[in-house]
């Protein structure tokens, strides 16, 4: 599994990843507007967990792990932004639905 994740990260098309993370965050923000921050951050949670497990198994495998974790956080910011937009859209649509009929 670690090799699969490593190859996925090595051959990553960052623009596509950012778009997909933003879209995933948007969907999660629409579904769970009150937990938008948590749902946005957890989209990238598998990567630091896998890196931590791999560091336990192969202690010399991640010599630059602080930088790696900062990159994971940077990638998570795109899903957090999408989740925030989902929360805002959810709030706006719920206000429109609750507004009284103008007639």
Plain-language structure description:
- The chain is an all-alpha fold and 103 residues long.
- The protein has one domain (18-98).
- 77% of the residues lie in helices and 0% in strands.
- It is built from five helices and no strands.
- It has helices at residues 2-10, 14-31, 36-41, 46-57, 65-98.
- The longest helix is centred in the last third of the chain and has 34 residues, at 65-98.
- The mean pLDDT is 84.
Uncertain stretches = none
Number of strands: 0
Radius of gyration, in angstroms, nearest whole number: 18 Å
Terminal Cα span = 60 Å
Structural class: mainly alpha
Quick tags:
103 residues, mainly alpha, 5 helices, 77% helix, elongated
Concise description?
The longest helix has 34 residues, at 65-98. The protein is an all-alpha fold and 103 residues long.
Element layout with pairings:
Elements: H1 2-10, H2 14-31, H3 36-41, H4 46-57, H5 65-98
Helix pairs in contact: 2-5
């Amino acid at each position: 599994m670690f090799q699969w994740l490593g190859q996925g990260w090595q051959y990553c098309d960052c623009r596509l990843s950012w778009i997909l993370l933003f879209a995933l965050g948007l969907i999660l923000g629409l579904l769970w507007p009150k937990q938008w921050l948590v749902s946005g951050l957890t989209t990238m949670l598998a990567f630091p967990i896998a890196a931590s497990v791999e560091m336990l198994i192969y202690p010399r495998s991640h010599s630059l792990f602080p930088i790696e974790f900062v990159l994971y956080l940077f990638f998570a910011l795109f899903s957090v932004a999408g989740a925030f937009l989902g929360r805002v859209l959810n709030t706006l649509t719920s206000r429109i639905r609750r507004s009284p009929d103008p007639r």
